[in-house]
Automatic annotation (TrEMBL):
Residues covered by region (Disordered): 47-68, 90-112, 169-193
Protein name as catalogued: AAA ATPase
InterPro entries, sorted: AAA_16, Hybrid_Histidine_Kinase, P-loop_NTPase
Compositional bias annotation for Polar residues: 181-193
Highest taxon above the source species: Eukaryota
Length: 1237
């Protein structure tokens, strides 16, 4: 072998390559070296098989030689078979020569003796060496003299290592440090001598030469086989046959298994899948045979069947490639789409693509087709142009494209005419080409009846045609979604009766070997290495190709499968992948994957899904401008996530399951609206008349697509404006259209448009009643912008016009009088009576109730507590007098909240809240459900377990979004704040807050934005992101340019200031900032008396009480009055919490009460009682699942023990607080605690 090595290097150097390192890394040298190594491995594996365990054979002349490691280098006994230069020249001339590059496969162990003698003579004859072609290697053997009579050592592992050493030496590296170890045959002694450091560095010189990583790893894994250490996914070799197989793969597929992975591309582009087919050889062969029969004599069709994602489309693509390589064909393909309502779309699009192709690529054939069509079909061809626009390019400019009269007698109806013309068209193009015509239709489970009829007629025609009329049809379908009565099944059954055979090719899950082939190919790793990963993937996906790809993509995204720069190949985290929770089916997996995409990306995918499997990028660009929604950039992001592909000017879903997942993000009742919306946007570009909007606006409103609906209305209004006197000539229509458009403008935050619309209504309204809806949408516009006092004034003025004025002076006596009167009236009526109460019919009273309900919310913001309390009482009295209005359920919910949270009548209040929800379901309209649910939840979170009851705010949000109610953002805002203070995981809370902020900003809801900002700041600081960019709370500008600040808005925005100060005092308490806590608490108490009924006032009572006791303890002894003030405040908060714990819910308030009591006893220096109460607070917090308050109670207990001189005991509580803050997600706060333990 040494002589061959020198000879090969000299030969390559004579060709111009001077540096030995470059020669060893060259393709020519590596190719020869691999052949030599493979020949040796093959010889050794033959011995391995013959000397397998439990098999005893005599050492006869027919037995293979017995091999073991020698005390000498194997290189002295390895003979390499090469051709002489004369033989090479003869071989090149004689194609029938028995010498070829694969001759090593024909070496028989019985021929080794003769061959070794020939090689010895050849190599020892210096005179012949110049005639040897060292680069035409035919094989290699171990000399019989070196191996004869010796048995395999210990399962052959020494031989594997020796083979690795020779490979190492063959590639120019001489591992002399190890050579002395070769003489030992005792594995135990070897393992003692050999050091791990030697193993890990065994092939480093080869890597430095630039040899392929896979080859270096192979040598390393053979050398390290004795120890069995796994330095690589795949580990060391256990059998020589494994080495043989890996070498064979490197020889046969060097581009796949020998070349290093392009790490730069892998890192920048990520995991990319090719177009190969795996494990479908038998099915592909069946399809080919069916095709050959069909184009020769018989009429036969094939149907590829299987579940979604099983590889039907991929099989069809591989078939098309194979047929094209075997001689070519005219391959047409189309795809049925579940969303496509146009009949014949899949078939017509397939032939339309043919028309475009033949015109661009084969002009002579296009002219031949044009001539034949005109001769056979004449002017009737114009009908086909309507379904195949590119046909016009074939027919030419001189062809009359005006369709023939519909009264023509040559066809009974339009469908029959189209079918007849299609058949003629197929007949013409199949005769104009020498190649067979193949039509493939995908997703045939969604085939329409017109296409079934057309396909049946085409197949019947081709079956009766002459021999040179060659046509083959095959399709793919999800047969699990097709019943026996499916139109396609009926057609195929009937065709069998007429002699057209159907071959069904059923695809099932891939085998483990097929999955391994797929993983191995896509990662460019040897199958032996990827088998462990492939087995895991097969187990988790049941062998579904799509599922395997999706899971691999998810592994890449989660960094469980990634390109390693140090190993220069793909690696994976086996244990983490094993522990990964994956749904049982690919549909659920894809849906879950979508949930991890950004809102913008998912929204863009939803839009794209409305156009089917693909859409032109130019169309999406136009649509993006018309609907004013980002599309192109988010779709490009989806391409980067491998959800979409981008090719030939189109965005397309990588699989129909992905399209279905995107489409499923729309509610079924909203899908029609989305189609109408996008269709309208495109229609407007082409000068639409506006009539379609009149047909669609009510459906759009009912389906909650306010963007589409507003487009309808705006276009309808523009249509009306063509008639200058439309308010006089079409008053009712104009009023309805302007009112609906105003509602949509409010939901879409188009405030300028809203103001214009309401001004028109107020100007042209013929009576006060006609102004109701304009006033109704103006109120939330004013509130959103922060001008709540103006909204309140508008409501009061309107109520006065409706003869429903509120008392000018609302005193406690007035409130009590109204409350007693309401209670007496309700006491006379059972719930069943109230649920069956007559409906309110007086429009003025209905509108008055609506205004009063809105006034209740507005007064909550500005702090008119007395007036706010009388409103639900007045609404109930109106309802009992005039009947139940759509807003009456909300009034009962507000009444229940008033009884429970103001009068402390929790049982009675909760009863009316539940009654409000029952009454809501009795009201036919769903427009105001969200308002009722919103106010009901204020009470429910006090009485029901908070962690579950706050989800009702989400229900209110969803109902508001569906109906277009303005409480959507308010519900989401309160929900987020409750999640923050009830201990929900902080990172999820922050994400939800940010989403709500975006929505608030989009809708220009200044109030909701202001309520959210302080809480978001606290949450960001808790999770350690306080340095992240965030708007400042103290200086905000609303939609009208007005500035919000603390100084001049105490009365105007009491609720907003209340929220802001609560956020500041709670933040200061948690981060132990005494001065800031005292200042914020002082301001909090100053506005607390102004606030009406904040939804989560108990959070403020709890935290302000804790701050009060803390400030009291830290106040100097000489300021006794100041200290007593704070203690009094703390006691008031504690007493409120005690009422809530006793009357409302032990679950929600017991732990808070214990902690306030503990702090009170700390202030009173009753340390023993305080200890008991701290522990009780901790235990109660844990039992009732308030992890944030468990953390806080542990921390305050720690400070208690620290300040009372028991530092060692404080460490225990601080340590537990640290753990619980981390569990909550408050990592920054947890980190700050480390100074205490």
């Amino acid at each position: 072998m040494k002589k061959w090595t020198v000879g090969a290097i000299v030969s390559l150097r004579s060709r111009g390559t001077q540096h030995v390192d470059k020669i060893v890394c060259s393709h020519e040298y590596l190719s020869c070296a691999l052949k030599i190594a493979h020949s040796l491995a093959k010889q050794l594996s033959t011995v391995e098989q013959e000397r397998a365990p439990h098999t005893e054979k005599s050492n006869t002349n027919n037995s293979p030689p017995m091999i073991e490691a020698s005390d000498k280098s194997w290189s002295e006994y390895i003979y390499i078979s090469c051709m002489t230069k004369e033989a090479v020249e003869k071989d090149m001339k004689d194609e029938s020569s028995t010498h070829n590059s694969n001759n090593d496969d024909k070496l028989d162990p019985g021929e080794l003796h003769n061959l070794s003698q020939q090689l010895s003579t050849l190599l020892e004859n210096d005179n012949n060496q110049n005639s040897i072609d060292y680069l035409d290697v035919r094989g290699a053997i171990l000399n019989e003299g070196a191996v004869d009579g010796r048995s395999l050592s210990n399962d052959g592992k020494l031989e594997i290592r020796s083979l690795g050493w020779e490979g190492d030496e063959l590639l120019g590296h001489n591992p002399t440090k190890r050579r002395s170890l070769q003489s030992s045959t005792n594995l135990d002694s070897l393992s003692q001598v050999q050091s791990p450091s030697m193993v890990s560095t065994s092939v480093e010189p080869l890597k430095l030469l630039g040899l392929p990583t896979a080859l270096c790893n192979l040598i390393s894994n053979t050398i390290d086989s004795v120890d069995g250490d796994a330095h690589d996914n795949g580990g060391t070799y256990g059998l020589i046959s494994e080495v043989r197989d890996d070498l064979k793969l490197m020889i046969d597929s060097p581009n796949l298994y020998l070349q290093d992975v392009d790490l730069a591309k892998a890192v920048n582009v990520g995991l990319q899948f090719g177009g190969s087919l795996y494990g479908r050889e038998a099915e592909l062969q069946t399809l080919k045979e069916c095709y050959q029969r069909s184009i020769s004599s018989e009429c036969e069709v094939a149907m590829i069947c299987g579940t979604s994602g099983i590889g039907k489309s991929k099989l069809s693509q591989e078939f098309a490639r194979s047929v094209n390589e075997d001689g070519g064909s005219i391959y047409l393909s189309g795809r049925f789409d579940k969303l496509e309502s146009q009949p014949l779309h899949a078939i017509s699009s397939a032939f339309d693509k043919y028309c475009a192709w033949v015109t661009a690529e084969d002009q002579s054939t296009a002219e031949k087709v044009s001539t034949a069509l005109k001769e056979n079909m004449g002017d009737e061809m114009a009908c086909l142009v309507t379904v195949m626009p590119n046909l016009a390019n074939i027919l030419g400019d001189d062809f009359n494209l005006n369709p023939i009269s519909k009264n023509d007698d040559t066809a009974v109806d339009a469908q029959k005419r189209i079918r007849y013309l299609f058949c003629q068209f197929v007949d013409v193009i199949s005769r104009c080409h020498e190649e067979p015509l193949i039509l493939f239709l995908d997703d045939c489970q969604w085939i329409d009846n017109a296409s079934v009829a057309l396909l049946n007629q085409i197949l019947m025609m081709s079956g009766s045609a002459i021999k040179d009329h060659r046509f083959f049809f095959f399709g793919a379908c999800r047969d699990d979604e097709m019943s026996e009565s499916h139109p396609l099944n009926i057609m195929l059954t009937s065709m069998n009766c007429f002699g057209t055979k159907t071959t069904k090719i059923q695809l099932t899950s891939m085998s483990k070997d097929a999955v391994n082939e797929m993983v191995s190919t896509e990662l460019s790793l040897l199958p032996r290495i990827t088998r462990s990963l492939a087995n895991i993937l097969h187990h988790k996906t049941k062998g579904s190709p799509l599922f395997v790809k999706q899971v691999m993509m998810e592994l890449y995204k989660q960094r469980l499968l990634y390109p390693s720069l140090s190993r220069r190949r793909w690696v994976w985290e086996t244990n983490k992948i094993l522990d990964m929770k994956i749904p049982d089916n690919v549909a659920t997996f894809i849906t879950n994957t979508f949930d991890r995409l950004s809102f913008e990306v998912v929204s863009a995918l939803v839009v794209l899904s409305c156009f089917g499997a693909s859409a032109d990028i130019s169309l999406i660009e136009v649509l993006e401008k018309e609907i004013e929604q980002p599309l192109i950039a988010p779709l490009d992001d989806a391409v980067a996530h491998s959800v979409l592909g981008k090719r030939n000017g189109k965005f397309y879903f990588m699989h129909d399951k992905l399209q279905e997942a995107a489409y499923s993000k729309m509610k079924p009742e909203e899908r029609c609206l989305h189609h109408n919306r996008y269709g309208l946007a495109l229609d407007l570009l082409h000068g639409g008349s506006g009539e379609s909007e009149f047909r669609c606006w009510n459906k759009a409103m009912n389906m909650s697509d306010f963007f589409a609906a507003h487009s309808f209305f705006e276009h309808g209004i523009s249509y009306l404006r063509l008639r200058r006197e439309h308010w006089n000539e079409h008053y009712d229509l104009s009023l309805e259209l302007f009112n609906l458009a105003a509602k949509c403008a409010l939901m879409n935050a188009e405030h300028d448009s809203l103001k214009m619309l309401t001004d028109q209504i107020m100007h042209h309204a013929r009576c006060f009643e006609d102004k109701f809806q304009a006033i109704s949408v103006t109120i939330p516009l004013l509130s959103f912008s922060g001008n709540v006092p103006a909204a309140v004034e508008l409501i009061k003025t309107t109520l006065s016009s409706l003869d429903e004025e509120l008392p000018s002076a609302v005193t406690p006596t007035v409130i009590k009088k109204h409350l007693d009167n309401t209670k007496k009236q309700l006491a006379l009526l059972s719930d069943d009576t109230l649920l069956s109460y007559l409906a309110m019919v007086d429009p003025s009273k209905i509108f008055a109730v609506e205004l009063l309900v809105k006034l209740y919310g507005s007064l909550t913001l500005i702090g008119e507590r007395a007036t706010q309390r009388i409103i639900p009482l007045k609404v109930i009295q109106i309802s009992l007098t005039y009947g139940m209005s759509p807003h009456s359920p909300t009034a009962f919910a507000q009444y229940g909240s008033y009884l429970a949270l103001i009068e402390d009548e929790f049982e009675e209040g909760y009863r009316y809240v539940k009654f409000a929800l029952s009454l809501m379901k009795k009201i036919p309209s769903r427009a105001h459900d969200s308002t009722t649910m919103f106010w009901s939840t204020h009470t429910r979170i006090h009485i029901e377990p908070m962690q579950s009851s706050i989800e009702c705010y989400l229900d209110a949000y969803k109902a508001a979004m569906k109906s277009g109610n303005t409480y959507a953002v308010s519900s989401s805002s309160v929900y987020n704040n409750c999640c923050l203070w009830s201990g929900k995981e902080l990172n999820a809370v922050v994400d939800s807050m940010k989403d709500t902020m975006k929505e608030s900003k989009y809708h220009k809801n200044f109030v909701a934005l202001t309520l959210m900002l302080p809480m978001l700041r606290v949450a960001l600081r808790l999770i350690g992101q306080s340095d992240a960019p965030a708007p400042q709370q103290d200086n905000l500008t609303n939609a009208f340019g007005e500035t919000f600040n603390e100084g001049n808005n105490a009365g105007k925005y009491a609720s907003l200031l209340h929220t802001m100060y609560f956020a500041k005092l709670s933040e200061a308490l948690i981060f132990r900032e005494l001065n800031e806590a005292e200042d914020a608490a002082e301001k909090y108490f100053s506005v607390d008396r102004l606030v009406g009924l904040p939804p989560v006032m108990f959070f403020g009572k709890f935290y302000s009480g804790l701050v009060s006791f803390w400030v009291a303890r830290e106040t100097d002894d000489n300021k006794r009055k100041e200290s007593n003030k704070w203690i009094k405040r703390g006691v008031e908060c504690k007493d409120k919490m005690e009422k809530l714990s006793v009357s409302a819910s032990t679950w929600n308030f017991e732990n808070k009460l214990y902690l306030l009591q503990a702090e009170e006893q700390f202030c009173s220096r009753n340390f023993e009682t305080a200890e008991t109460l701290y522990d009780a607070a901790i235990l109660s917090s844990k039992m009732h699942k308030f992890v944030n308050e468990e953390a806080l109670a542990n921390e305050l207990a720690g400070h208690f023990y620290l300040e009372t001189g028991r530092r060692n005991k404080s460490v225990h509580y601080f340590s537990r607080a640290f753990d619980k803050y981390n569990e909550w997600g408050a990592v920054a706060k947890a980190s700050a605690l480390t100074e205490y333990f």
